[in-house]
Each structure stands twice: as C-alpha cells, then as structure tokens.
Amino acid sequence: MPKKPASHLNPRSPLVLDTRELPRRPGAMREVVRVTEAPADLGVEMIGVAQGAEISLDLRLQSVSEGVLVTGTVSGPVSGECGRCLRPISDSLTVTVQELFAYENSVLDETTDEDEFGRVQDDLIDLEPAVRDAVVLALPTNPLCREDCPGLCSECGVHWDDLPADHSHELADPRWAALHNLTKPEE
Ligand SMILES: [Zn+2]
Ligand SMILES: [Zn+2]
Q: pTM for the complete prediction?
C-alpha cells in the first residue's frame, strides 16, 4: 500500500504532544497536565471554545506495543449565542479523549488508515482532531441561554422577557388603532 507522505506537525501547536520523554516500552507512562491556548475552529457555528481561550489538558500518555495511547480530559470555556434570542452564552466544557496513535512502521501503521488511528510522526502526536471531534459532539446543536428561553417577539424583535405579558401587535394596523382610539374613554 503506498504511503502518504507524513505531513510535518508543528511542535509548538497547542495540541501537538511530544512523546520523546515516553520510553517505547509497553506500560511506560507520562502525564501531561498543562494549560494551553485553544486552536481555531474548536466548536460549531453558534457555540464553541474561542480561539486562544485557555484550555486545560489533563492527559496520560501510555506506551503500548504498537504506539501511544492518550487518555484524559480537556476542559475550557465555551462561548456562543442563544439560538432563540441571540443573547451571549458562556459556559464551560470538559471532554474525555481516548485516542491511540500508531508508531511509524508498526503493524498498526501498516494495516490501518490514518483516519482510524492517528500516527506518531517524528515523536509527535496531534491531538487536535480528536479534541475537536469530542468538543463538537459535546456541544448542543441548538444552544439556548436557558432551557425555556422564549426567544424574541417576531414583530418587534424584543425579548419576551422584557415585554409585558399582554404584549401584542394586534393594534399595529393604523385602521385598527384608529378604531381602538374611538372606543377608548376620553381622559
Ligand atoms: Zn435565549
Ligand atoms: Zn413585539
């Protein structure tokens, strides 16, 4: 099977992990606990982790016979807009990651595709796709500022929270307004 040329990973990228400290001996383990900056596009259209926001990695890198198993959590702040009223939403999110990266030229490398398992490239592994998948899965497709957000009045665009209970536009038609004024007692 022809191999795709390995794209070079940027060791300074926030979710690229260096495995040089991890002995290639099954069972060997290293912890990566650090705060880094969120990469771009960590989320969906309406909500996500803003680029550059502080995200916390709490990961364990474990040497297995065919590669490196990464498990742990990534947490960070989430910001977005309510799908009904467009008010800003801020929240936090913790996702679990569990991802196996194959050593170059291992059996796992030779027998699987890169979209099945990531690859250890020059002792580096790129956790970004796995983190992105986990974050996108954990985010609501229709984010709401609160579960029962009533949204905006479709006529005037004001939030229903800020309108009186009897708010209506039934008298917006000038002819009806005129009629209404006729029936109003003189003040
Ligand atoms: Zn809302
Ligand atoms: Zn209205």
A: 0.80
Q: What are the b/e assignments for 39-74, b being 16+ CB within 10 Å? A: beebbeebbbbbeeeebebebebbbbebbbebebeb
For the stretch 122-167, pLDDT in tens is 999 999 999 999 999 999 989 999 999 999 999 999 999 999 999 9
User: Could you tell me which residue, 141 or 61, shows the higher pLDDT?
Assistant: 61
Residue 8 in this model has a pLDDT that exceeds 90: no
For residue 182, pLDDT over 70 is answered with no
**Neighbour tally for 161: CB within 10 Å:** 13
Dump strand ranges (E) for the chain. Answer: 16-18, 29-37, 42-43, 47-49, 54-64, 67-81, 88-102, 118-119, 124-126
Find, among 24, 92, 26, the residue nearest to 53 by Cα. 92
CA of residue 159 to ligand 2 center, whole Å: 8
Ligand nearest to the CA of 150: 1
Q: State how far the Cα of 158 lies from the Cα of 98, in Å rounded to an integer.
A: 45
Query: Whose atoms come closest to the Cα of 85: which ligand?
Result: 1
Judged on CB neighbours under 10 Å (0-12, 13-18, 19+), 156 is exposed
